[in-house]
C-alpha cells in the first residue's frame, strides 16, 4: 500500500511535547545545579500486550535515562553529568593517562582535570504501565453498509526523586501520569448489487499514540514539577529579575494542585469533573420506519434537546424535532416528535463516555389527515466525546415504539408501527464543568 501523501518518509528532528514546551516559560536559575543520573529505569517489568501469542518486546522504552538527561538539559536548570556509563568514562581517562606517560618526551605528564561531582542525584523510574484502563466502541450496519469505531486508553506513571549527596536526604519526590490513547475507525459495505454479483469494500484507519512520546511527556512534566517545587522549598533560586515570572508560575501550579485534589480517584480519567448542569443539543438523524408496508427506506430528520444534569450519572431532557418517515414507494410524510427522557452516563468523569436513554413522548403526522398526537415510548444509547469543555460530539441510536398501527395511514397486521433512528450531533454545555 502506498503511504498517504502527507507522510514524510525522511528523517526529521524529534517532535516536541506539550510539557517540553513548558520549559520555555521557566525563569532563569540563579545557578545551574549539577546532577547525576545513574539509572532511571523501567520498573514495571511488563511486556507488550499481544493477541497473537507471546511477545517479548517490553511495553516501556528502555532508554529512560537518556530521555531524562535530555529533559534536564532542555530545562536550563540542571547540568547533568555522566554516571550511567561511568565505567566507560573512567576507562577512557585511564587510557589517556597511560598514553601520555608512554609517549611523553620529557617525562612531564599533564594531569587530567578533575571530574565534576553531583550535589544531587536523581533517581526513580516508570513504575506503572496500565493497559486497557478504558476500552469501548460503537458500530452500526444497515443492509450490508456500516461502520464501527473502537478506542482504548492506557496509562503510564513516572516517579522522580532528588537525593542530596551530602546527607542522603530525599529532598523532593514528584510523580506524574500520562494517558495513552488509541482509536480505530472502520467502514465497510457488503451487499449483492445484482444476481450473483457481490460488492464488498472496506476502509479504516487506526491511530496509536507512540509510547515513547507519552513517556517523554511524563518525564518532562516531572522535571518541570521538580523545578517549581524546588523553588517553593528554597532548594534552588531564580535570578532576582525573574521573581515575577516564578511567582506567576507558582500560582498556576498551586491552582493545578487544588484542581487535582478535588478530583475523584477511581472514576475513570483525571478530568476536570463531570459535565456542566445545563446544555442544549442539535442532531441530524436518519430514520427507518417499520410499518405495514413491506419496502422500508431511510429518511432524514433533525432533533434538538435541552438537558438538565441533576446528578453525576443522570440527566433529564426534553427533545423535539421533525422526522421524515415512510416506505420506499407507497408512503412518505413528515412527523413532529416531542419527548421527555432520562439519560444515564456510564463515565461522567471522562471526556469519552457511553450513555443510555429512555422515556416517553408524542408523535404527530404533520401532513396526514389525522393530526392527533400519538403516544410512544423510546429507548436507546450512544457515545459522547467532549471535544472541549463546552462542546460534545454525540452518536446515538434510538428505537421508537408506538401503540397505534396507523402512523403510515394503513392498519394491517398485528404489530403497531415503530421506527429506528440513528443520529450524529453536537451538545453545547453552558458554564464550567462541575467539580465533585
Helix and strand topology:
Elements: H1 18-21, E1 33-36, E2 41-42, H2 64-75, E3 78-81, H3 86-103, E4 120-142, E5 145-164, E6 170-194, E7 197-208, H4 211-232, H5 243-262, E8 278-290, E9 298-309, E10 314-326, E11 332-345, E12 352-365, E13 374-388, E14 391-402, E15 418-430
Quick recap:
By secondary structure, this protein is of the alpha+beta class. It has helices spanning 18-21, 64-75, 86-103, 211-232, 243-262; strands at 33-36, 41-42, 78-81, 120-142, 145-164, 170-194, 197-208, 278-290, 298-309, 314-326, 332-345, 352-365, 374-388, 391-402, 418-430.
Describe the structure.
The protein has 436 residues and is an alpha+beta fold. Helices cover 17% and strands 45% of the residues. It has five helices and 15 strands. It has helices at 18-21, 64-75, 86-103, 211-232, 243-262, and strands at residues 33-36, 41-42, 78-81, 120-142, 145-164, 170-194, 197-208, 278-290, 298-309, 314-326, 332-345, 352-365, 374-388, 391-402, 418-430. The strands form two sheets. Strands 8-9-10-11-12-13-14-15 form an eight-stranded antiparallel beta barrel. Helix 2 (64-75) crosses helix 4. The two termini are 49 Å apart.
Amino acid at each position: 500500500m502506498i503511504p498517504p501523501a502527507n507522510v514524510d518518509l525522511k528523517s526529521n528532528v524529534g517532535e516536541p511535547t506539550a510539557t517540553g514546551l513548558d520549559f520555555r516559560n521557566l525563569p532563569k536559575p540563579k545557578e545551574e545545579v549539577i546532577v547525576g543520573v545513574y539509572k532511571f529505569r523501567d520498573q514495571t517489568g511488563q511486556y507488550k500486550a499481544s493477541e497473537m501469542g507471546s511477545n517479548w518486546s517490553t511495553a516501556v522504552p528502555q532508554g529512560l535515562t537518556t530521555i531524562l538527561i535530555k529533559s534536564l538539559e532542555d530545562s536550563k536548570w540542571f547540568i547533568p553529568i555522566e554516571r550511567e556509563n561511568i565505567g566507560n568514562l573512567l576507562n577512557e581517562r585511564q587510557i589517556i593517562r597511560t598514553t601520555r606517560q608512554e609517549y611523553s618526551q620529557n617525562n612531564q605528564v599533564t594531569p587530567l582535570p578533575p571530574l565534576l561531582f553531583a550535589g544531587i542525584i536523581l533517581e526513580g523510574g516508570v513504575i506503572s504501565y496500565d493497559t486497557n484502563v478504558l476500552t469501548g466502541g460503537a458500530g452500526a450496519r444497515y443492509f450490508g453498509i456500516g461502520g464501527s469505531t473502537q478506542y482504548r486508553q492506557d496509562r503510564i506513571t513516572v516517579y522522580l526523586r532528588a537525593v542530596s549527596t551530602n546527607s542522603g536526604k530525599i529532598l523532593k519526590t514528584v510523580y506524574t501520569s500520562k494517558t495513552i490513547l488509541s482509536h480505530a475507525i472502520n467502514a465497510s459495505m457488503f451487499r449483492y448489487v445484482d444476481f450473483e454479483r457481490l460488492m464488498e469494500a472496506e476502509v479504516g484507519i487506526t491511530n496509536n499514540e507512540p509510547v515513547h512520546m507519552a513517556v517523554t511527556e511524563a518525564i518532562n512534566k516531572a522535571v518541570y514539577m521538580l523545578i517549581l517545587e524546588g523553588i517553593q522549598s528554597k532548594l534552588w533560586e531564580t535570578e532576582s529579575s525573574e521573581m515575577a515570572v516564578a511567582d506567576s508560575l507558582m500560582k498556576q501550579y498551586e491552582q493545578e494542585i487544588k484542581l487535582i485534589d478535588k478530583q475523584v480517584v477511581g472514576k475513570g480519567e483525571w478530568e476536570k469533573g463531570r459535565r456542566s448542569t445545563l446544555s442544549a443539543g442539535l442532531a441530524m438523524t436518519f430514520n427507518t420506519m417499520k410499518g405495514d408496508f413491506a419496502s422500508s427506506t431511510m429518511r432524514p430528520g433533525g432533533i434538538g434537546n435541552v438537558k438538565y444534569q441533576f446528578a453525576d450519572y443522570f440527566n433529564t431532557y426534553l427533545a423535539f424535532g421533525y422526522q421524515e418517515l415512510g416506505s420506499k414507494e407507497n408512503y412518505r410524510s413528515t412527523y413532529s416528535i416531542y419527548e421527555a427522557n432520562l439519560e444515564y452516563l456510564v463515565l461522567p468523569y471522562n471526556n469519552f463516555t457511553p450513555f443510555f436513554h429512555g422515556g416517553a413522548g408524542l408523535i404527530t403526522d404533520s401532513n396526514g389527515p389525522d393530526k392527533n398526537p400519538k403516544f410512544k415510548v423510546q429507548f436507546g444509547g450512544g457515545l459522547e466525546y467532549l471535544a472541549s469543555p463546552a462542546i460534545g460530539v454525540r452518536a446515538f441510536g434510538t428505537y421508537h415504539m408506538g401503540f397505534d398501527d396507523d402512523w403510515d395511514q394503513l392498519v394491517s397486521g398485528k404489530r403497531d408501527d415503530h421506527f429506528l433512528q440513528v443520529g450524529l450531533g453536537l451538545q453545547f454545555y453552558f458554564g464550567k464543568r462541575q467539580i465533585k
